[in-house]
Amino acid sequence: MATTDGSTPGRRERKKAATRKALSDAALELFLERGYDKVTVAQIAEAADTAVTTLFAHFPAGKEALILDDSGERERSLTAAVRDRPEGTSVLDALHAFFAGRAPFAEDLPEEYRRRMDLVLRTPELCAYARQVWIACQAALADLLAEAAGRAEPDESLRILARYILETPDLASGRPDRRAALAEAFTRLKRGWPDL
């Protein structure tokens, strides 16, 4: 396991990661077994053999974050999808591929991710939280779109496009054929922003 700067984490970081994983795993199992609404943070902490204060120290956003922890991963992934796209690939094609490879659109997810995804899709509170976490990336994505378009900063059109892109997973995931809905959304976005 390496840190974001490529170094090997120390003992303290490994212990924190293990505690976070234990809490997240306990939450997933309890939510699947009893239902999201019937599980308290105290029960999750007890199942992970930690204190409630420890749970909130690691997941200050509460129950939703135990399943959909962000820790900046979404913004880093969006940045990589845009900046590291293959030469000749449009920004919108790169972002379509990015979302198509993630839950709930990817077809070859590991079992643990599939279980989490199924829980999120059938739990309104988790769906709302997932949308909120994506929308929090709007300013960063608008900046990336401006950078890709060769602009110093995003104009209103790029801010709107960033919001549309980040709303797409929520909208498409509720359709019977999620992958087709995602493709249709990006086809329409490309019509509106053909230079991206």
Describe the model.
With 196 residues, this protein is an all-alpha fold. The protein has 2 domains: 11-58, Orthogonal Bundle (Arc Repressor Mutant, subunit A); 73-192, Tetracycline Repressor, domain 2 (Orthogonal Bundle). The radius of gyration is 18 Å and the shape is globular. The longest helix is centred in the N-terminal third of the chain and has 24 residues, at 11-34. The protein is built from 11 helices and no strands. Helix 5 runs parallel beside helix 9 (138-148) and helix 8 packs antiparallel against helix 10 (156-173).
What is the count of β-strands? Answer: 0
* Alpha-beta content class: mainly alpha
Q: Which of globular, elongated, flat, extended, rod-shaped describes the shape?
A: globular
Average pLDDT score: 87
Number of helices: 11
CATH class of the largest domain: Mainly Alpha
Named CATH topology of the largest domain? Tetracycline Repressor, domain 2
The H-level CATH homologous superfamily of the largest domain, spelled out, is Tetracycline Repressor, domain 2
Which architecture name of the largest domain does CATH use? Orthogonal Bundle
Compute the number of structural domains.
Answer: 2
- Give the distance, in angstroms, between the N- and C-terminal Cα atoms: 35 Å
Largest sheet: none
Provide the succession of SSEs.
Answer: HHHHHHHHHHH
Low-confidence segments, given as residue ranges, are none
Helix content: 55-70%
Roughly what fraction of the amino acids lie in strands? under 5%
Gyration radius, in Å: 18 Å
